[in-house]
Every structure is written in C-alpha cells, then in structure tokens.
Amino acid sequence: MGVYDNLNIPYSQYLDHHGQLHETCSDYTSDAKNLINFYKIMLRTRVFDQKAINLQRTGKLGTYASSLGQEAIGVALGAAMHANDVLAPTYRDYAVQLSRGIKMSDLLLYWGGDERGMDYEFSREDLPICVPIATHTCHAVGIAYAMKLRKQPRVMVCIIGDGATSKGDFYEALNAAGVWQLPVIFIINNNQWAISLPRDKQSATKTLAQKAVAAEIYAEQVDGNDVIACYERMHEFIERARTGGGPCLLEAISYRLSDHTTADDAQRYRSPADVEAQWQFDPISRLKTYLLENQFIDAEALDALQKQAEQEVEEQVKIYLNTATQPPEAMFDYLYETLPEALQSQRDEVMRKGKKHE
Amino acid sequence: MHQLMFWEAIRRAHDEEMDNDPMVICMGEDIGVVGGTYKATQGLYDKYGPERVMDTPISENGYTGLAIGASFIGVRPIVEIMSVNFAWLAMDQIFNTAAKVRYMSGGQLEAPVVIRSPGGTAHQLGAQHSARMEKVFMGIAGLRVVTPSNPKQAYGLLKSAVRCNDPVFINEHELMYNMKGDVPDDEYFHPLEGLEVARRGKDISLFAYNISVHWCLQAAEILASQYQIDAEVIDLYTLSPLDRKGIVKSVSKTHRAVIVEEAEPTVGVGAEIMAIINEECFYELDAAPARVSAANVPIPYNHRLEKEAIPDVEDVIKTVLATLGR
Predict the structure, then answer these.
(1) How far is the CA of A52 from the CAs of A103, A320, B175, B294, in angstroms?
(2) Residue numbers of the domain that contains B151
(3) Residue B303: inside a domain
(4) pLDDT tens-digit profile of B29-40?
C-alpha cells in the first residue's frame, strides 16, 4: 500500500463558449435532429423559468427556485436516461423533468403550494423534488439496490448541488453505493453557490468529483454549460452502470445566473458584474451559435421554436391557474394509507371550520 | 401454541415474511453473518443470502435512507437499528422522508418500511446506550409506532408491519429478548391499532406499554392480594395512533388512572395520556391521574444510581395507593 494511483479527475468539454466544437461527436450528437431537440428543451425550460418568476412576483406562485443557466445538465441527462430509469431531482432540475415528460402545470402546481403536483402523470417512479439537501442521495442508493435485487437493467440517477457534497448523507450514500457496486449515477450541478456560500468556501477540495474517489467510485468533471459534453459523459456513465459497471459521479461545472430562489437577493453577497461576466458561458447561446454556423437550423426556425415554447408555457399556466384548490380536509389525505380512527375527529373538526370560512 | 422467546418470535416473523415475499429484505449492523446483536435475524443470512440479509456499514442515516428508497419501488425492508440511541442519526430520514413522502408527493410514492430498534435501561449501558425514544417517534404524524410487551405481540406486530403500506417503527426493549411467552402455531397478524386489556379490574386503570406492562401486572397481583385493590392493566402496544376511545373506556369504568413508563416524564407518553384523559373524561375521575416515570436525567452508568433513576414495581404500588387515598 502506498500512494493512491487513481486520483485523476478528467475534465471534458466539446463545445466551447464561442460555440466551437473541439471533440469528435458520437452518432447521437452528430445528428442535427438531436441537437435541435436539446436546444428546444433548454429553451422551453428557460421560458418556463422566466414565467414562473413572473407568476411569483405577481402573487400567483410561491417561492420558486430558478434553473437559469443550468439547463444543459438536465437536458443532456434527460436524453441519456431511459424512460424506465429513475430520477431523484433537487428543486432546480426542471430541464430533466421536462425532458422526462413531467408537465409544466404539475411543476407550477407544486410551487403554487399543492403537493398533487408531485403526483406526476409520467415518469411515475421518479422521486418528488427533494427540498432538503442531499437526503435523496440515500434514497437513490436504495432504489439502485432494489433495481439490482430485482435484476432489472435500470439505472438510478441522483442530482445534487455543490453544497450537498458537504453533507453526511452524501458520503454515506457514496460509501454504500461503492460497497454494493450499485447502478447509480450521482450528478453534481456545481453552480458555484449554495445560497450565499461560494464554492471555495464550501470545500477545500480542488474538485468536488474527487470526493467520490474515497468510496472507490469513478468520477469526472464536465463543462456543465456544454450540452454535448454533458450528454456524451452521462450516456457513457449510465450505460456502464446499466451493464454492471457500478456507480459513477459526474461533476458538471455551471453557474447559477439567478438568485437562489425568489426569496433571495443575491446582490447581498455577489456583485452583478460577476454575474454579468458569466453570461458569456450561457449554455443556450453557445448551442445556438453552433446550430446556426453549421446551418443545422436557420433564424426563422429558431424564432418558431421560441414562439412554440411561449405558447406551451401559456397553455400550461392556464391549466395550473384553473386547478381548483383542495378543500381543508385534504390535509389528512395521503398521511396514512387509511386514516386512523383517532384522527377522524380532527378531520371532522377541520371540515366544520373550513365550511364556516367559505 | 408454543412458548417462544421474544427474539425467536421476531426471528420467526422475519422468516415467514421473507419466505412469503421475495421483496422482503432486512438490513442493519451485524444482522447478517452473526444474526443480530439480539439474535432477531439468526440463520436468515444462510437461508436468504447476503442480498436479502444485508450487513450494512455503520451508517444509520445512510442505510435507513437506503431502505426508504428501496421501499419506493416495491421492496419491503425491515431495518434493525442496533440501539434506539443510534436512531437519532436516522431521524431526518424517518421524520422528513418516510413519514412524509406520500403526503408530499400527492400520494405518488409511499414508504412501506419497518424500522425495529430496542431501547431502554439495561444493566449499565451508560447514558448514550440507555435512552427510550418512543415519545419522540409517537409525535411524528405519518409514522406508526408500536411496542410489543410479549412474544406474541412481537411476532404478530412485525408481520402486520411488513404488510402495512405506512412506515412503522417498532420499539423493543433490550431486556426483553429472552422473555418467554405463548405464540400461536398458526400464522398470526396483530392489529397495528388499538390496545389490550392485559388484566381486567375495576378500581383503577394502569396504563403501560412494553416493559412497564410487566411491572404493572406484578403490581396488580400484590395490590389484589395485599390491599384488595382490583387494578386494570392496559397494554398500549400501539403508541401512535393512540387508542383514545380505549383509554377513555377504561377510565370511565375505574375512575382512576396511573400511567407507568420507563422513560422520563417530560413531554412523554404519560403526559400525552394524561392530556387525553383530561380532554375526554375529566368528569369521570374520582382522583387526579398520576404518572410513574424515570427521573429527568440521562440514565446513570453506576449500577445503584441506574436502578434508582427508573421506576419499579414498588413505585407503581405506592402511586396506586396514593391515588386511592390509602
């Protein structure tokens, strides 16, 4: 025993922030159709995101966590996962959720304060948005364990932020995934900020990816604003896990262009100039440049995609706003499979009180 | 009907449920190769293999979260937390996920997970290995909490818990694993709600659970033979949801109540039952209800101090006599 010889964390970038390609694409990302689809979902996510913030500002939505600038990670992941794989998302992962068929109206319903929004119509085994930090890493390991136990060729994908890598849950999950060699992929959306705490104050490690190495889990970094690189690395990791290759971790380096949530004002802890400087790395504009310069799409078609996204969002907002509020006694629904008799009188009391307030 | 020890009854429930459903697994520290600190999973590792009888890393939060996650997609895990004192480490997973996932997903997911763990004061284990945490668990909405007082209950409650689609916490006691009792030979499912009248009586109701049921039964015999007091002993094998009607029924009959718990009284099981009595049947009372509880201290390491910190049969008798004005 001696020097550990495997502390090598590769970093990948295919498409730089000027929209120039530096690596050879796979068949999938060589196909313009797939790249346009990436673009389309990133755009849908961003239009949705802006609309959600507007709804919050006008009192029609609760506190909302924006995904601005981090759309590439989710869109790539959505393409790399199979429909019957399982996703454990955080509260900033709309891009992958939309890719997996989860409806905007359900996401809005949730942020509007109605947990029926987490009862997805599609991807029903995907976990609800995990608001606590890193607790879902342990659930992900359990789901991966269940997949292995049932001998299913499925993969579990868990997304966390940079801040989550400081938590015990994360280390415990990595340790267990390593011990049992489970089909689970951890994706770190390293957006540089955990509310007000910057990346360099979060952890002394040079990379966040290297934390996996201690659990003997293979790890890499990728440019999180490069949807092509994200897809290539995620696809490889996921397929490796599917065929018994065990767990992996991918640190996607991005930047949170928004406040932490609508309840936050990031100007208290970082300068607008610093944020402005990050816009040059925006994942959507670099893919747009690449698509246009290679004549995969023209400006007119791009405009049409923008209009299509806006129209979809408007329709979904309508569905959300027209969803009837639950009656007060619904607070007892879903607490137990069958409400215990001891709670029945409380439910009756809430119903009586609710009627009085009508 | 056969006599089984408490641990044998729990082991049998594991075995039957694992045999019945290949998705039932169990996990915990030292439960596999060595069969568990209290032998509750003895022999299961050889019978069902390491995939279904998992020796976990020392990682209570991690493996409890793992079990909860596995339960989301059709696995039914039975988790053993070696000592309830370590369950604090898994509390976030139990409190924030297991008990809330159905609620917070609009019914999309549920966590049919069973967590068993022994607590209690057991011959100088020290303050960090002697806690009783049932009062913490019973305050968690969405979690079912049961606590067997005999092998039949231990067997039947675990079997019902495994089949239940809500998360269930089973509070056991470190000193009770070798206790013997009758267990039906046929398969038996104990209800997860309700209470049992362990001894019928008319003069006073003694509310107890887990180990304190035995103190109360002993006290009741002495009260009958030496003081001609006919005490009713109520076994609250379900701590959540508490059977309010059953509690009221007994108090309405005897008009007097003493609650006996091994734990400290502050914000405890006794406090909750006393509140129920006040809310539901205050005017049935002929005397103020009383509690027999531990001192409000961490359990001392020293043998003599430890013994003095927790209640015993004598304390139960004294409190009953005082309540009856004798």
Answers:
(1) 14, 11, 57, 54
(2) 2-183
(3) yes
(4) 999 999 999 999
| Predicted interface score ipTM higher than 0.90 | yes
- If you measure CA to CA, which chain B residue comes closest to A326? B106
E-strand ranges in B6-108 read: 24-28, 53-55, 76-80
Q: Which of B100, B165, B127 is CA-nearest to residue B301?
A: B127
Q: What is the pTM of this model?
A: 0.96
Domain boundaries of chain A, sorted by first residue: 11-326, 327-358
> Is residue B2 flagged as an active site residue?
no
- The three-point CA angle A177-A178-A179 to 5° equals 95
Q: What is the pLDDT of residues B38-75, one digit of tens each?
A: 999 999 999 999 999 999 999 999 999 999 999 999 99
- What is the Cα–Cα distance from B118 to B140, expressed in whole angstroms? 18
Among A138, A149, A341, beta carbon nearest to B62: A138
Q: A65 vs A110, A147, A201, B48, B65, CA distance in Å?
A: 12, 31, 22, 45, 25
DSSP A212: G
B129 has catalytic annotation: yes
B102 touching A (Cβ < 8 Å): yes
Model confidence pLDDT, tens digit, residues B1-29: 899 999 999 999 999 999 999 999 999 99
CA distances from A276 to A48, A64, A151, A347, B169 (A): 21, 22, 49, 52, 51
- Superfamily for the A11-326 domain: Thiamin diphosphate (ThDP)-binding fold, Pyr/PP domains (3.40.50.970)
**Residue contact B241–A138, C-beta within 8 A:** no
Number of structural domains chain B divides into: 2
Q: What's residue A4's pLDDT?
A: 65
